[in-house]
Amino acid sequence: MNGFAELTYVLCALTALSCTVLLLRAFTRSHMRLLLWSGIFFAALTIENVILFIDMVIFPTTMDLSLSRNVVALFGLMVLLIGLIWDTRAS
After folding, report:
1. What DSSP letter does each residue of the chain carry, written as one string?
2. Distance set, CA 55 to CA 40, 52, 58, 66, 82 (Å)
3. Is the pLDDT of residue 61 over 80?
4. Could you say which of 7, 42, 45, 77 has the lowest number of CB atoms within 10 Å?
5. Once rounded to an integer, what is the mean pLDDT over residues 1-15?
6. Rounded Cα gap, residues 31 and 13, in angstroms
7. Around Cβ 39, how many Cβ atoms within 10 Å?
8. Helix axis angle, 33-53 relative to 3-30, nearest 10°?
9. pLDDT tens per residue, range 12-56
10. What is the pLDDT of residue 89?
11. Percentage of the residues of the chain whose pLDDT score is greater than 90
12. How far from chain centre, in Å, is Cα 41?
């Protein structure tokens, strides 16, 4: 792999992590539940990007972590979707 792919994986994980931190910090100040659901979603995206880095860079040929990446992404999407539906019904 070239250096740009590894850099992209790392930057995506750091971006998702910074979004997670900012959203959860905002949630602790305002207690708006949409910020909580979004923060959990971005936490799942951070974990997914870390697993992607491990899968593609550290163990590119010996392991296939695509199932675990997809499960984490699905969990994050489900949390966000359930949170959005729950907040819409509560309003």
Report:
1. --HHHHHHHHHHHHHHHHHHHHHHHHHHHH--HHHHHHHHHHHHHHHHHHHHHIIIIISTTT---HHHHHHHHHHHHHHHHHHHHHHHHH-
2. 22, 5, 6, 8, 29
3. yes
4. 7
5. 90
6. 25
7. 22
8. 160
9. 999 999 999 999 999 999 999 999 999 999 999 999 999 999 999
10. 75
11. 81
12. 5
Distance CA 36, CA 80 (A): 9
**Alpha-carbon distance 41 to 22, whole Å?**
13
Residue 1 has a pLDDT of: 60
CA distances from 88 to 2, 30, 84 (A): 45, 18, 6
Q: How far is CA 41 from CA 30, 58, 66, in A?
A: 18, 25, 18
- CA atoms in the 13 A half-sphere facing the CB of 15: 7
* Two structure tokens written together for 51: 């697993």
